[in-house]
Amino acid sequence: MESALTCFLCSESYNTSNKAPRFLPCGHTYCSECCGIILEQNPARCPEDDSNISYTSIDAIPKNQALLKLFQNSNICTEHKKKLEYVCINDKIRICSRCALMGAHKDHEIKTIEDVHNEVVMRAGVLVDMLEIIDKTEAELSDTIMVKLEAVADQYDSKKEELQKSVKTEFSAMRAQLDALEKIVLGDLNKSFTNIENNITSSRELPKVIYQQASEWKDMAKDLLNLIDAKNEDPSYILFKMLASGYVELFQAGEKLLTDLEGIKDIQIEKISDDIQALDIDYTRNKIQTLCKVVNRGKNLQGRKMGESNNISDFNPKNFTEENKNLG
């Protein structure tokens, strides 16, 4: 048994630190220090069967867990052959008095097994007490807070459904009102279009009528003047038409025609243009942004005041039509 706990190469006892047993691929076991020396060779080979070793670092070579369990299950220090009465807190292993005073653990935190046992028992008691408190608190929460939270969750679901339905209903009604308002505005707009179109049409037709009358009058006047030229051929000829009442009527018609031609200048083209320019629609878009708002008057779980949405204000569906009836 003692030879199994001793390194074959250095004849020193295995431990759990620098002399930890390492298991080579070929099956042989050596301490960590000897394995380090073997890996320094090129190529690295097992000292006993000369087999190749592919590992490049000591940590890569697995520890011989079977031998380590022998150390853990034994109450005798394999290095100093003394009883394991102490515990190294840093390395979390049992050690003997010589390990604590002169060995690799001399500068570590050392406690007796009894002290460690008492501390473990004390901490276990604290955990038991805490477990009981947590169980009790959890039960109280389940009976009170959790029940209330479930009720609040149900309240939220109901409120969510109610408000979403309300928004859809109200906006559906507003769309219907907007459609009706659109028809009214378009009707008023078409009336204004008709008035302007009539003014443009009449203003276009009046000059045409007067120009036609002027053309007819000029033809009649030219015909009469051509008869006067006959005097040069027959001195005894007298143009009785110039003395008849028809001449007076032609002259009076000419005077009226001059008045009508002057009246064309008075056609109010600028007035029609001003009417076209002045025709517009006041959409008052800013009112659309103030039809409704989302209000949060409560506080969140951290007690901070919940903010309100931007650019929104109170909405009263009954006032919708009154506020928007003058859009046209």
TrEMBL record:
Single GO MF descriptor: zinc ion binding
UniProt keyword list: Metal-binding, Zinc, Zinc-finger
Signal peptide: none
Start and end residues of each stretch annotated as Disordered: 303-328
Classification via SUPFAM superfamilies: B-box zinc-binding domain, RING/U-box
Pfam families: zf-B_box
Organism superkingdom: Eukaryota
Residue ranges with Polar residues bias: 308-319
Domain B box-type intervals: 72-113
Domain RING-type: 7-50
Protein name per the record: RING-type domain-containing protein
Taxonomic source organism: Stentor coeruleus
Phylogenetic placement of the source organism: Eukaryota, Sar, Alveolata, Ciliophora, Postciliodesmatophora
